[in-house]
Amino acid sequence: MQTRTTIHDEAGIATLETALTLPLLLAAIWAAISYGLVFTVDHTLAAAASDGARAAVGAVTEAEAVAAAQAAATERLDRALGSFAPDAVVATPTVADCAPTGARCVTVEVTYPWGTAPIIPDLLSVVTPDELSATATVQLSH
Amino acid sequence: MRRHDDQEGAVSILAALGTVLVLLTAVLAIDLGSNVLTHRDLQGAVDLAALDAVLALPVATDPAVLADQYARDSLARNDGWSDRDGRTVTVTVGTFDPTTRVFTPTAVQPDAVLVEAWTDASRLTGVLPGADRVSKRAIAALDARAAISIGTSVASIDSDRSSALNRVLSRLLGRTLDVSLDAVGHRGLADGTVQLGRLAADLGLASPAELTDTTVGVGQLFQAAATGLSASGDPLDVAAATPMATLAAEVGAGLQVRLGDVLDLSAGMPGSLADVEVQALDLVMVTAQVVNGANAIDLGMPVTVPGVGSGSLQLAVLEPAQLAAGPAGVDPVTGAWRTVATTAQVRLGIDLTLDPVTAGDITTSALHVPVTVEAARGEAPLATITCATSAPEPWVTSPVATSAVTTTVGELPPDLVAVSTPVPAVTADVATVQLTSPLLGSLDLGTLTALAQHDVGSATETLTFTGPYAEAQRTPGSSTLGATPRVPGSGDDGRVGLAAAFDTADLGVTALAAGVDLQTDVLDPVLDATTPVLDEVDRRVVGPVLESLGVSLGRADVTVSSVDCSGRRLVE
Questions:
Q1: Are the beta carbons of B320 and B344 closer than 8 angstroms?
Q2: Are B252 and B537 a contacting pair, CB within 8 Å?
Q3: Chain A residues 20-79 with a CB less than 8 Å from chain B
Q4: What is the pLDDT at residue B473?
Q5: To probe the interface with A, which of B566, B570, B571, B572 has the most A CB atoms within 10 Å?
Q6: ipTM
Q7: pTM of the predicted protein model
Q8: Alpha helices in B318-387 (DSSP H)
Q9: Mapping DSSP to helix (H, G, I), strand (E, B) and coil, where does residue A1 land?
C-alpha cells in the first residue's frame, strides 16, 4: 500500500519537470538561432552596402554611380539571402554633399524590416531589432 | 524511499546545468560575434577609406596630405571614426606593382594608398583567445583606363587606299553593297572619334555597360555613331558625321552585329566607359569584319596596273580585329594583359596574269603568278597608364607586336578558310618558255615554275603616348625593328613586298635546250620584267587592301583614343 502511494507520488514528476524546463531550453535555442540569423543578415546588409559603394567608384556620372551601386548591392542581397529576402529589403543609394569637405559622395543604405519579415518567427521580439540596416559611403569627386 | 529521493529533481538539475551551459555558450557566441563584427566593420571602413584616399593622387600637389585627410574623413563617415578611444590610423602613399603585388612607399608619382587602422577588440567575457587590438589594412590603387586600337588607322588615305577601303567594306558587308565614300570621306572617318556614352544613348541603351551584350543593326549602329559625331561639337567629329551617315544609309537594315564582338570592354568597369572614345573608321572596319565572319570573299577588284593582263583577289578574315577599352597591366591570376587590341588575322589570295616577257630569242607565255599572303594577329596591349600631376596628359605605354606575315608564291589553296597555317607551298606553273631561232624555228624549252615561302616574324616595339588624345603612332620607330629583317624591296609605307617575295622564288624551267643559260637568258629577264609590275600591284592594290584590314608588314598603327584617370580599385 505504501509502495503504491510512493509510486503515485513519483508519477509524472519527470514529465512535469521536463515540461517546465523544456520551454526554457527551447527558448534559449530559439534565441540562439534567431541571434545567429540576425547576425547573418546584418553581416549581409553591411556587405551589400559596401559592395554598392565600391561599385559606385567606377562611375563617371552620379546617375551611373547610383545605378552601379544599386546593381551591386542587390546582387549581393540576392546571392546571400536568395528567396529568404522579402521584397521589403531595399538598397537605396543616394548622392549628396558629404562632410566635411562638401565633396560629392554616394551613400548606400540597405534596410531589412526584421520585425515584420523575420526569416523565422520572431518569438523574441523584445531582444531582436525591428529593423536591420547598414550604410556605406564613398567619395565620388573632390 | 532513498531511491525515490535520489530520483526527485534529477531533470531539474540536468536542466539547470543545461541552461547554464546554453547561456554560457550564448555569451561566448555573442562575444565571438561581436569580435567578428568589429573586424568586419573596421575592414569595410578601411577599404572605403583607401578608395577615397587614392582619389587625391592625380590632383594634389602634396598627395600625402590630401590622401590622409580623405582617408580620415571616410573613416569618420563610415565608422564614426576618430582618433579617440584608442583608435589610430596611418595613411601612406606609394606605388603598387600589380605583378609582384608589392606596395612601395614613395611620394614620387604615387599611384596607390595604404591605409592601416587599429582599434580595441570588442570583448564581453575576455575568455576568448586573441589579441586585444584589431588591426586592418587596405591598399587602393589608381586604375586608369584607356581605349586602344591597332592597325586600322590609315594615316594617309589617297585614292587607291580609298578605293580599296570601299571595295573591302562593300564585300565584307554584303556582295550587293556598293560603298561609295571618297578619300575625303575616309579621311573624315579616320579623324573622327565616337564617344561610347553618346553611342549608347543614341542606341537607346541605359548605360555604356549594355553595349557589350547588345546586338543592333549595322545601319542603326552607324546612324547612332553619326548622330553622336554630329552632336560632339568637335569640328573633326562633325566632319566625320556626314560620311558615317552616308554609310548608314547605304548599309540600311538587315545586317546585325553584336557589339561585344567589336568592342572588348570585358576588362573595363562599366561606369567608366561613358567618356571612352573609339575612332570612327575603326568602328566601321571592325564592324564589317565581324559581320562577314570567317567567309572567303572575292573582292572583285580590278587590277589596273600596266603589265597586268588580269587579276583577282580573294580575302578571308579568319579572326576579326578588336578594339579594346579597359585598365592597363597584367591580370595577376591569368598572367594575361587585361586590355588588348588586335588586328585581324587574314589570308589574301592573289591570282595575277602578267604580260608575256620577250628577251632576245626567248619568249614566254603570259605569266601566271599566284601568291598567298597570310597575316597573323598583331597586338597592342595596354601596359601602363601613368596619371601624374606633373604631366599635362596621362602617359600610356604599349608593347606593340606587329603581325607576322607569310607570303607564299605557289598555287593558291582551293579554300582560303579551311587550309592549314601556314598555307602549304605548292609549285606553280608560271609560264611556258620558247626559244625562237631562225634555224630551228620555235622551240618549246619547257615550263617556268615558281615556289617560295617567306616569313616575316612579329616584331615588338614599345610605344609611349603622351597625349593629347586621341593620339596615333606608328611602329617601327626605325627600319631595323626587331630581329627579323624586313623583306628587301618592301617600302616604308608598309607594303607586303610582293615583288621581293617573287624575286626570292625558286624559279626553274623544266626542260632547257643546250646553249640556253637558265639564269641569264630566262630568269633574269623574267624578274626584270615582273619586278616593277609586282611592285606596283603591291603598292596600288595589295597594300591598300591589307591596310584597310589593319595589316602591313613589320609595322603597326596604334591609336590611343582616350584616357580616363578617375578609375580606382582595391588591390589588397
A1: yes
A2: no
A3: 20-22, 24-25, 28-29, 31-32, 35-36, 39, 42-43, 46-47, 50, 53-61, 64-65, 67-68
A4: 73
A5: B566
A6: 0.84
A7: 0.69
A8: none
A9: coil
Confidence label for B352 from pLDDT (cuts 50, 70 and 90) = very high
Strands B296-298 and B308-319: antiparallel
- pLDDT, one tens digit per residue, over B234-289 is 898 999 999 999 999 988 888 899 988 888 876 554 445 667 788 898 899 899 99
- Of the pLDDT bands very low, low, confident and very high (cuts 50, 70, 90), residue B399 is very high
Q: Which residues pair with A77 in a beta bridge?
A: none
Q: Note whether A85 contacts B: Cβ–Cβ < 8 A.
A: no
pLDDT in tens, B506-534: 777 776 666 778 888 888 888 899 888 98
Residue with cell 618592301: B490
Cβ of A28 within 8 Å of Cβ of B59? The answer is no
Note the maximum CA span of chain B. Answer: 150
A121 touches chain B (CB under 8 A): no
Hey, are the CB atoms on B74 and A101 less than 8 Å from each other? no
Task: Provide, as residue numbers in chain B, all residues whose Cβ is less than 8 Å from the Cβ of A20.
Answer: 12, 15
Give the full edge-to-edge strand order of the sheet including B112-120: B102-105, B88-97, B112-120, B133-142, B568-570
Do residues B403 and B556 lie in contact, with contact meaning Cβ atoms separated by under 8 Å?
A: yes
